[in-house]
Amino acid sequence: MVECCCCSATLAIGTVIVAFVGYKFICSKRKDAPKLNVENWKKDVVYLFQFPRITTAPNLSPFCLKIESMLRVYNIKHEIIETMRKRGSNGQLPFIELNGKQIADSQLIDVVLREHFNIPSLPSKRDEGFARAIDRMLNGNTFGGIIYFKVLKRFDGFTDVILREMSRQPSFLIPFLQTVFRLLVGKRLDLRTRTLVGDFSTEEFRMLLKKDFDALVDILGDRKFLFGNEITPTDCSLFGQLVTVYNVSYDNEVQSILRKDYKPLLDYIDRFRQQVFPNDFIDYK
Ligand SMILES: N[C@@H](CCC(=O)N[C@@H](CS)C(=O)NCC(=O)O)C(=O)O
């Protein structure tokens, strides 16, 4: 009986401690506003923190490129801060600072930019609904399929771009750093991709990615951009996803898939590029 009381008391105290520590951890994480990087910010200027440029395209990250595209398309005053080290409150890039606040995650940044800079909505609510659905497909399922071929199947090419083009490491260190990279993040990326899309075989990843590309070609039809003659934020997502795998300096299967079966998407990339990034690409092949 005495033993039983002791057990209950220990259990109760343990539970209270765990609950208290958990509460403190979660609350302090949520309450603290992230520390600002730009102290002397100018009103209504967007400070975009993103990865450094790569040789062949404006960025290796589709999410960074989406936001830079939006800033250009809507003529929003901005400054780009290239960084390999800094991360937003979500542990990732891109993030922005606007009027003394940090906003992390391209989905949230998209919402804030639309509201703050009065980016026009599409003419119908139905189109707005489609736009959101396409945007989420692109930045979830399509992104996962692309990552499979761009990163997991070409880990050395991908890390070579990061180490050589983005962080300018000396050549003799690259093989060593690639091994470290593989050990540190290889498994995590594999798990993230399989959680995002599914635990598929290469053949299945290929087939499912092509389903997304087919859908995009059907949605595009003979329009210049997804919803007509004007570029929308969803176009910025599509452009970001496609060029950050198509315009990298190493061969990957998504390039071959696009070249073989998806000329409308390649023409689309060209149109977007001419209009928004006329001087920012070097064709790899
Ligand atoms: N949901 C995030 C995804 C951003 C993301 O995945 N960023 C990656 C690069 S593409 C990143 O910063 N990874 C962390 C790292 O490389 O250290 C968004 O939409 O912004």
From TrEMBL:
Cited Gene3D superfamilies: 1.20.1050.10, Glutaredoxin
Name this polypeptide is given: GST C-terminal domain-containing protein
Stretches of the chain forming a coiled coil according to its record: none
Domain of life: Eukaryota
Domain (Metaxin glutathione S-transferase) ranges: 210-271
Species per Swiss-Prot/TrEMBL record: Diploscapter pachys
Residue intervals of the Thioredoxin-like fold domain: 62-151
InterPro entries reported for this sequence: FAX/IsoI-like, Glutathione-S-Trfase_C_sf, Glutathione_S-Trfase, Metaxin_GST, Mito_Protein_Transport_Metaxin, Thioredoxin-like_fold, Thioredoxin-like_sf
GO CC entries: cytoplasm
Family (UniProt): Belongs to the FAX family.
